[in-house]
């Protein structure tokens, strides 16, 4: 933590906050105290921040909260809420000044939260440049940092080293090798009965067909980048992978995971949620970037988890001080150790000693931030369904892709 934070808290931050009319008022110690007692005690109570977090992250944030209180005297009231309720409840309560000071959530919430005017930019001083490029991009909206990213996650290629020790440079060569090793499942890429565009996206981008176009600053435009010849070439490749038994509607997430655990494929495209589980289960695995199929970089979506500041918080100053702490190396390392995800601060991510997470981090370096447009919620089913129609043969690749593009464009222009 920067010394300025402790100095600010110790200099009477609580009094300044009380003047703001906080909904969770600050308190200060009263009564005489000796110099020796003050030197040996924790900082005086300096206020309380309410944080909403889901069941998968609550223990990690409790740990951070305890460390922060010991340093600053500021308490975190960590409230557990179901992951599916955090965003919707925040949207409902924040405009009237209710709800928390901070929420923990994914970067693709930014568009919806910002359009509702309920999150505020954060000011991190010299720590603003500490984040990895994918993490910083993911939490930037309208040229401003709209929260503090703390964890990065993406998919990559996971290899079972018992079955293969060398991995080819191209996806076609990978399929050939996999077919020789495990004919039923040359490479596992989950799809299921609704399709799964997320797990196919790195292959799609290798054809030069990103989901959205970008402006000269690298920010997404609500304009499809996957229409035209590049996207159609990818669509034809999807059919090729289906014919090679790489893609199937019968192989969803659970089926792909179990097939890999059973040694029925040397490769699976997945994320740290399963990669770490494979390693903990005793499998000898290596995590690698996904090879290119179309000649360009295979760029997965990079999803980023972070903490948002309520624009209606009465504790904005106190909250921003905590967010500055959260952007520091100590807090990021603590969250990484407790949560098992690649840290968002580059210096911490570069020094993690978990080879599985390090592999996912390296695969993310050429990734694309997960878009935050509210329209994305309606795009996923159209996109996955269009690819599934090609996989199961109910649509011819080029015609099916063109129809899918038309359906998506109609939706985003409503």
Question: Helices, strands, pairings?
Answer:
Blueprint: H1 3-10, H2 13-18, H3 35-40, E1 47-53, H4 58-72, E2 74-80, H5 83-93, E3 102-106, H6 110-115, E4 119-120, H7 133-138, E5 140-141, E6 144-145, E7 148-153, E8 156-160, H8 171-181, H9 197-205, E9 212-214, E10 220-224, H10 229-243, H11 253-261, E11 267-270, H12 272-280, E12 285-288, E13 301-310, H13 316-326, H14 329-339, E14 342-343, H15 346-349, H16 355-363, E15 368-369, H17 376-391, H18 397-412
Parallel strand pairs: 1-2, 1-3, 13-15
Antiparallel strand pairs: 3-13, 4-13, 5-6, 7-13, 7-14, 8-11, 8-12, 9-10
Helix pairs in contact: 4-14, 10-18, 17-18
InterPro entries: SBP
GO molecular function, one term: maltose binding
Keywords: Signal, Transport
- The number of E-state strands comes to 15
Large-scale geometry: globular
The N- and C-terminal alpha carbons lie at a distance of 47 Å
Summed up, the helix count is 18
Question: Structural class from helices and strands?
Answer: alpha+beta
Question: Can you say what the CATH homologous superfamily of the largest domain is?
Answer: Periplasmic binding protein-like II
CATH architecture of the largest domain: 3-Layer(aba) Sandwich
CATH top level of the largest domain is Alpha Beta
The description of the largest β-sheet is:
8 strands, mixed
